[in-house]
Amino acid sequence: MFKEVNAQEFKKMVAVDKDAVLIDVRTPEECDGGMIPNSINLDLMSAEFMDQVLELDRHKNYYMICRSGGRSSTACGAMANNGFKSLVNLMGGMLSWDGEVVHP
């Protein structure tokens, strides 16, 4: 299971969570257009995605991001099926994000 929240709630949760890990599952090319600060890019469509996920600490809190919320929801499901307990999906993805962005 995972939680889905809007951009305002996402911002609030990340701001107070010392164990927050933000993961942007878009392609590197999409991320070039801007990413939420402190997020890391793990491309859901890459062959290495699940290998990269399985190396992550299952005790952290993961905040998932994509363009519109679909791929990040898929990634949350895959992570939940592999023992990750704290997963939050940004509903509407970057299309709904009105906060700061950085360019990698």
Straight-line distance between termini: 31 Å
Secondary-structure element pattern, one letter each: EHEHEHEHEH
> Helix count?
5
Cα shape? globular
User: Which regions have little confidence, pLDDT < 50, spanning 5+ residues?
Assistant: none
Q: Strand pairing plus helix content: what structural class? A: alpha/beta
Task: From the alpha carbons, calculate the radius of gyration and give it in angstroms.
Answer: 12 Å
Furnish the topology, listing elements before pairings.
Layout lengths: L2 E3 L1 H10 L3 E5 L3 H4 L7 E3 L7 H6 L6 E5 L4 H11 L6 E4 L2 H4 L8
Give an account of the 3D structure:
By secondary structure, this protein is α/β, with parallel strands linked by helices. Helices cover 34% and strands 19% of the residues. The chain is built from five helices and five strands. A five-stranded parallel beta sheet has the order 1-5-4-2-3. Strand 4 (61-65), helix 4 (70-80) and strand 5 (87-90) form a beta-alpha-beta unit.
Can you summarize this structure?
The chain is an alpha/beta fold and 104 residues long.
Features:
104 residues, alpha/beta, 5-stranded parallel sheet, 5 helices, 34% helix
